[in-house]
Design brief:
By secondary structure, the protein is of the alpha/beta class. It has a single domain, classed as 3-Layer(aba) Sandwich (Rossmann fold). Helix content is 38%, strand content 20%. It contains eight helices and seven strands, in the order H-H-H-E-H-E-H-E-H-E-H-E-H-E-E. A hairpin with a 5-residue loop joins strand 6 and strand 7. It is globular. The chain starts with 11 loop residues before the first helix and ends with a strand.
Length: 222
């Protein structure tokens, strides 16, 4: 299990309880968590176990067959989505870091889901723009550089089928989205605030912000 909760509002005890009473990470996922933690502070980019379980269940609930991920890191979220896809499903992963995604590749192979995953190492905006404009995708997960969240969202939404879903990570930014008063400039926080406001006003979708991990917004295309 992770050394500390991903959710800033959960105590370690409550975090362990909710993980244990959902679908806790299996032995393979625990090894991926442990290997990622060896990377140091950057390991904080990995999603929480309960978020991974939620993503697997959601993938199955909406009957997703084709999914997109923007920001793969060491592959835990991709593993979670791929496990929820049918045998002939496809998950397109967009990332730029060969070293981190190489870790994920090993675990995808061991888990038997690598055949469902296509990893493209290139700027995500370029990859998304290269896709057909047809609304043929069922699910997307955005968890990459925060200043480009809006760009990724606008590329994905037209390509999403009606009733399809988008998940957006880190929308609470450690609780700082509710800060008032002067604070040190944070370009990532500013980007998250702008994106959250954009999404709140978007009449093309239904949306709900969930207190999972570091904040997870679930969007449904109308």
């Amino acid at each position: 299990m992770p050394a500390a909760p991903k959710s800033f509002f959960l105590s370690p005890e409550i975090s362990q309880y909710l993980i244990a009473h959902g679908s806790p990470p299996d032995e393979l996922q625990q090894r991926l968590i442990a290997e990622t933690e060896q990377l140091g502070p950057v390991a904080g980019m990995q999603i929480s176990p309960e978020q991974g379980a939620f993503m697997t269940v959601l993938t199955r609930l909406i009957g997703a067959r084709r999914a997109i991920e923007v920001g793969t890191f060491t592959g835990y979220s991709a593993l979670s989505v791929a496990r929820g896809l049918p045998d002939d499903g496809l998950l397109l992963c967009c990332d730029v870091n060969e070293d981190w995604t190489a870790i994920g590749r090993r675990y995808w192979e061991e888990a038997g889901v690598a055949r469902k995953i296509e990893l493209r190492l290139a700027p995500a905006a370029d990859t998304l723009r290269s896709l057909s404009a047809e609304p043929m995708w069922d699910l997307a997960f955005i968890d990459a550089d925060k200043p480009n969240y809006a760009a990724y969202y606008e590329e994905i939404l037209p390509r999403l089928r009606q009733g399809g879903a988008i998940l957006v990570d880190n929308v609470l930014w450690g609780g700082r989205v509710a800060e008032t008063g002067a604070a040190a400039p944070d370009p990532n926080l500013d980007a998250i605030l702008r994106f959250n406001d954009l999404l709140a006003a978007d009449q093309r979708v239904d949306k709900v912000m969930l207190p999972i991990g570091d904040g997870l917004t679930l969007v449904r295309k109308r």
